[in-house]
Amino acid sequence: MTVLDSRPDVPGDPEGRVANPIEEPTALITEAGVSMAPVDDLGAGRGPFWLDDWLRANVTDVLAWRRHIHAHPELSRHEFATTELVVSLLRAVGLKPWVLPGGTGVVCDIGQGERCVALRADMDALPLTEDTGLPYSSTTEGAAHMCGHDAHTAILLGAARALAGAPELPGRVRLIFQPAEEVMPGGALDMIAAGALDGVERIFGLHCDPRLEAGKIGTRVGALTSAADLIELRLTSPGGHTSRPHLTADLVYALGTVITSLPSVLSRRVDPRSGTVLVWGAVHAGQAANAVPQDGVLRGTLRTADHEVWTSLEPLVASSVESLLAPIGVGFSLDYRRGVPPVVSDPESTALLRAGVEAALGEQGLAGTEQSSGGEDFGWYLEHVQGAFARLGVWPGPPAAQADIHRPTFTLDERALMVGVRTLVHTALAALA
């Protein structure tokens, strides 16, 4: 395994151990020989002393891990090299991680005691081609870290190795390096099935947000993201000539009826305060202009921020589609795939997370954040234990543009890595206090 060399003047090994400690970080060298200066630690001096010392000596390591993962992205449930890297870096400081049965995903405990809180990061990349021009751009065709999971993984690695060097901890911190967040069903379900939450009383996580400046953490009590379900509706008709629609069942007209009417029906059957929205993404039917096709398909996503509404949507969609199509005589089959539940941060866990942010960065690090219609499988963990999720600011600030996630041009301000490490460490300490 080759990892970017974060200390070119100091001998080390591929597992991240360094033979001779240094007091100040040096420039970071990529595999291509490109030199990049280390970034500022926006929380430097806020303690505790062992965290300040660790970050001062290892800031370039955290950058190197992130850049290596960024350059070598792996798609969902294929994060084998990333898993190997995480395991080797944890073992290098005496920890005992274990890998999920599928070969991707890592769980590891730090500390001792009955009480246990969890910190989670996701590891998978998106099936996109990067277009950033970074010297450490993706080297894998058709895969790129355009959602910040490379940063999430490096941040949790930094928090893990800093916590491993703490004089003592008031309990156990469980590290969850999760595969397959970007697909449904997501890797959170694999983690839960493997026992990653056994004995855990609370769980916390961060996600990159290009709308927040680096140095800010956005928190919110209640729904932060939405449930996200997939709908695939297949229609059938005997077919026929478009000159005689009355002698058949007009399938394209039926598709149009569902496309325009189902979102409207749902808006009258569901509490508008729930943030429920149906958007179609694909429709396919027929080829000839003068022929009524025999089959067609309609696909879309249905999202809601309300957990109770989420549990009622599947039967409501099925009955509504049946009512809309009955007068037209078109047959249908509905494949309704429940995705992820909404991420709902409870008040106490959010207060602990905010306390962690304030300890790590001061009051100026705290920010509010809006509820999003995006899905995040961190919600599955919150079906089992309490917890809170927050948004990590990665925007450099003006005049830099805000490059949204899931785009080939997404980049992040790497000062956010140190912010993330400090926030996770302080949040774990606050939750165990």
TrEMBL record:
Q: Which InterPro entries match?
A: Amidohydrolase, Bact_exopeptidase_dim_dom, Peptidase_M20
Instruction: Quote the Gene3D superfamilies the UniProt record gives.
Output: 3.30.70.360, Zn peptidases
Which residues does the annotated region (Disordered) include? 1-20
Q: Which organism is it from?
A: Amycolatopsis rhabdoformis
One of the Pfam families matching this protein, by short name: Peptidase_M20
Q: Where is the composition biased (Basic and acidic residues)?
A: 1-16
Protein origin, superkingdom: Bacteria
NCBIfam families xref list: amidohydrolases
What's the protein here called?
Amidohydrolase
Q: What is the lineage of its organism?
A: Bacteria, Bacillati, Actinomycetota, Actinomycetes, Pseudonocardiales
